[in-house]
Amino acid sequence: MKFADLHLHTSFSDGTWTPEELVLQAQKSGLSCIAVTDHDTVEGCPGAAAACAAVKMEFVPGAELTAEQDDTEVHILGYFLDMHNAKLLAEIARFQIVRQNRIHEMVARVNESGVALKAESVFELANCKSPGRPHVARAMVKAGYVKTLDEAFERFLKKGRPAWVPKSKISAPDAIELVHQAGGLAVMAHPGLNRTDSIIPGLVAAGLDGIECFHTKHSTSMSERYLEIADKHKLLVTGGSDCHGFSKGKPLIGTVKLPYEHVQKMKQYRSKGASVSAIAAK
Ligand code: AMP
Ligand code: ZN
Ligand code: FE
Ligand code: FE
User: Fold this and answer.
1) With b meaning 16 or more CB within 10 Å and e meaning fewer, what string describes 207-225?
2) Which of 52, 67, 42 is nearest to 199 (CA)?
3) Residues 86, 88, 90, 96: is their CA dihedral positive or negative?
4) Which of 8, 163, 270, 273 is 20 to 30 Å from 247 at the Cα level?
């Protein structure tokens, strides 16, 4: 059996491994195919593609776009993206500026809470164009303001806490269109984490191609529920670990193994413009 992991982050967003280190870990986990899906960037893809080619692992260029549907944040995964697509690159450059400005706002709010964190220390640690809350949390741990990343999120960074700053986001239909015009497939990430399935029909109407049924934070019953929803709406089925490198001592890569047949279906769907139901009937 061949397996894939289609949800992985690198140091080009909030993952801790370089693309090359990620590919090494993917090899150790026995994966045959991986996708890099960094937040609002494709910069990790060329390095990962080269590292995969060197070890004969299949690589799918991807990204995880932060979008919004009916006032709910939704992450849209793009797969088989043209990494050089001008519109995609222009749009993600805008998202990155929003992310960088948001770091300044979050640090200002952390400061208002009496913690003298410096924005510079966050940018230095992040060392990428697509910084996010995990970088703020890591900088706070590094400077000794909190003991753990969890403490940083619980006390400051999660929604409702003093340093939580909303991001201005692209609408989900626009994100799906952005993925499509870059030659990609648009997939709803970790639906179980959104806790609102009511947004799914709207995404389907906007051209959603697939849904991430298998994810580290999905229980077996959740995965089953989303497999049923995929079937109902004739969506592709994807899955991945959402590994960000080492987390509490051990990486998530290898904990979600998507049977390779799903990648084959994605490729068939893409190349032939075939409908999911036609592929499923094979
Ligand atoms: P952002 O895109 O900047 O809002 O950051 C979102 C990222 O933060 C997610 O991809 C998760 O990896 C991470 N994250 C969210 N909540 C937590 C949490 N409670 N503890 C640790 N990491 C978290
Ligand atoms: Zn992340
Ligand atoms: Fe996500
Ligand atoms: Fe992710």
Assistant:
1) ebbbbbbbbbebeeebbeb
2) 67
3) negative
4) 163
Q: How many other C-beta atoms lie within 10 A of the C-beta of residue 195?
A: 7
How many angstroms does the Cα of residue 38 sit away from the middle of ligand 2?
A: 7
Three-class SS state of 7: coil
* pLDDT classification of 274: cutoffs 50, 70, 90: low
Ligand 4 centroid from CA 79, angstroms: 13
Nearest ligand to residue 8 Cα:
4
Cα separation, 270 vs 100, in Å, equals 34
User: What pLDDT is recorded for position 279?
Assistant: 54
Residues with CB under 6 A from ligand 1: 14, 39, 66, 132-134, 149-150, 153, 158, 244
Rg (alpha carbons) of the chain, rounded to whole number: 18
Look at residue 245 and give its three-state secondary structure.
coil
Nearest CA to ligand 1 atom 22: 134
Beta bridge partners of 273: none
DSSP string, 232-255: HHT-EEEEE--B-SEETTEE-TTS
Nearest to 98 by CA among 45, 46, 41: 41
**Which amino acid, 166?**
P
Nearest to 61 by CA among 35, 27, 87, 91: 35
Q: Which atom of ligand 1 is nearest to the CA of 66?
A: 2
Q: Among all chains, which residue has been given the structure tokens 């080619």?
A: 53
State the residue for tokens 């984490």. 193
Residue type, 38: D
Determine contact, residues 226/195, Cβ cutoff 8 Å.
no
CA of 132, closest atom in ligand 1: 3
Give the chain's mean pLDDT.
95
Beta strands in 55-194 (DSSP E): 58-69, 72-79, 170-171, 185-188
111-134 average pLDDT score? 97
